[in-house]
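Quick illustration, no need to memorize.
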Amino acid sequence: MTEANIAPDFRNLAYIRTLNGAEAKSLFPSMPDVAPDLELWALLDADGTPIMLADTREAVEMNARDNDLEAVSLH
């Protein structure tokens, strides 16, 4: 087996993370103002690039599936 066969493929990997309103604003600067303690859910590319923000985990998971991404949770 070559390294190419066993190296992980991160192109379709994304992670789900909860954020408060203040953290979300730093990742998504164009979002409207929200309460700083509001719980939101973010879908981020494997390299940390923001993909989407939602008010429910289900919405983020659905977006990941719709875009053929393997979503993992970050704790």
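Residues 15 and 72 are 5 Å apart (CA to CA).
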